[in-house]
């Protein structure tokens, strides 16, 4: 669709995120390989695979429009190449916290004023999301991106769900255990001991 790829911005479980340009404007494009997505089971039942999650990610992002959420410009389903492209608003300073491989603490610290501003922005995004009936389910530093103007934006709706207001939903949600509320990890009464 007229985008020129310029280089890798990040990597996820099923593909890469690349910087790209069209008519002088920069975008980030998340490129997902459908054959890999189809093979990755994400829950019980037929059709519970990462491809269904990616299609849900697109459907959810299309509903959203907020300054503290990374916007979807367009989604392209390339049948021939077997790829899904999510063209996203480009957030030029990357994740709010840098991860240190094997480091302790695991992230490079930022100052309290910047942390406070980022938290405020994330809460604004979450408030809008929840009012729209969407639960993000994977809020963590890698999924909070920062603009050079100092605005934090939540990205990665890969495991998000439209909430039905049904508490039982929580049981089937998958996210990043280290950043989940304990009751979402399935370590409650009657289940296996917490790690
Ligand atoms: P995960 O394995 O965490 O689910 P993912 O495949 O869902 O990853 P994202 O979290 O959406 O992918 O993106 C991976 C990384 O790519 C981000 O952590 C970030 O570094 C970079 N990235 C994603 N979207 C953008 C964007 N709009 N602008 C700039 N960088 C981005
Ligand atoms: Mg991510």
What are the defining features of this structure?
single chain; 195 residues; alpha+beta; 5-stranded antiparallel β-sheet; two-stranded antiparallel sheet; globular; disordered C terminus; binds adenosine-5'-triphosphate; binds magnesium ion
Radius of gyration: 17 Å
Calculate the mean pLDDT score and round it. Answer: 88
Gross morphology is globular
Bound molecules: adenosine-5'-triphosphate, magnesium ion
Number of strands: 9
How many individual helices? 3
Structural class designation: alpha+beta
Name the beta content range.
Answer: 25-35%
Strand order of the largest sheet: 1-2-3-5-4
Question: How is this structure best described in words?
Answer:
21% of the residues lie in helices and 25% in strands. It is globular and about 50 Å long. The chain has helices at 34-39, 50-63, 112-131, and strands spanning 4-11, 15-22, 25-33, 72-78, 83-89, 134-135, 144-146, 152-154, 161-162. The chain has 195 residues and is α+β, with helices and mostly antiparallel strands. A hairpin with a 3-residue loop joins strand 1 (4-11) and strand 2 (15-22). The strands form 3 sheets. The chain has a 5-stranded antiparallel β-sheet with strand order 1-2-3-5-4. The termini are far apart. Magnesium ion (MG) binds next to loops.
